[in-house]
Amino acid sequence: MEHIVKESPEKHSLIPTSYTVQEVFGFPSQLPLDGYKPGHPLVPKPTPGYVWDARIVKDFIEWLTEPSPDPIWVSGPTGCGKTDALKNVFAALHIPTVIVSAKSSTEPDDILGRVQLRNGNTVFVPGELLKAYQQGYAIIFDEIDGYNPEVLMACHRMLERAVVTLDDGTVIEPAPRIYLAATANTRGDGQGSDQYAATNIFNLASLNRFEKWEMSYPPADVEEKILENQFSGKLQPNLMQAMVKTAADIRRAYQDGNCPGPISIRDLLRWCRKLIQAWNRKDVPPLYHSFDKAFGNGVDPHVRAMLHTLIQTNFGVPAPQIEGVKP
Question: Which of 89, 118, 144, 204 could cross-link to 182 by cystine, CB 3.0-4.6 Å?
Fold first, then answer.
């Protein structure tokens, strides 16, 4: 469970207000979206220099303007920005957010709450998830396909936005409006489990409670803008364009079965940072050294040599010889 502050969030009242699509996403529209006035300590921090992909913005507008939005299951490859997109939506709308991170050992009591002994009496102490459910915070089940399926089954009533009655008789009333979202590398039906270890298959009763979304890596112009917002004045535009092109080539290699994993947006940003640091080094080729620090050293040397050829093609800089790999 992600905690942002130590003080009790119940002390902070939520004051409804609205924001325009332009204020939230930067696209020219005055359509109002419901949110809260700033000030609550559980509102996520926006990502500096975040760039919205117009394709996902339209999905968010549909979801946010529904009278009673269903929970959403957002699937997509690792590092494509699923959780980041949700956090930035709730940050812009100033909606307090609880992020529940999956663990294979997680049990229902770990997130819903436990019966505890207090002053000689046994009382049920709700977990942060149920408190969020009562207060009307947004709830993100991060990497939900890493959960034990019985944990998700224990949340069925919440996913229906229904009254939750616990084993000890405790009744939890839902807030009038709740945003529930789950992020996952897979659809939860077994698709992609051969690529992502420790993911689980969920029954149809669980999956049926979600609206299904798919996300992919952003288009080249969006990814270039992400790099530009972070590194303008530090890296030349043509370098950043070549980095984005290389990332797309690596993702294609992954889809074709020639690379064990795709390069994520995080990897791409790391490559930029490491290149800036290594720029003036004479003992290593900075372009390839920074790439290997960001991504290349995580794959087999023969695969790394193949990735280096992609870099050489896009940058025109000769690739170094890798020890143990014949040219």
Answer: 144
